Fold Enzyme related to lactoylglutathione lyase.
Amino acid sequence: MDILGTSLRVCVDDLDSAIAVYEKLTGAEAVRFQRGPVEVAAVGCFFLMSGPESEMSILRKITATIAVKDVDEAIADLTAVGGQIVAGPLPAPVGRTLVARHPDGSIFEYVDRNPA
């Protein structure tokens, strides 16, 4: 699979305060969007997330978001090495997303820019 980049996931209580900090640290401007009940801000290589605890407890289990060229290719490669697809692929704001558990138990989100 072609990995294009990685974004670190940071769960925060106060998104506006966190945005100010991460904009200052990265020199990048936040791009905000909503993912269901969760507010997200992409700032440089960080995804800041804030929302109801029921959602955040799930999101905290995902280590990072990995941008790939093609989610279908990621599925093939992940299953070939013993990975498990936990959710998806599903439509995302920019393409498709899936959540996978690696054989070591780590959980990652994979996202591409290919519309569903």
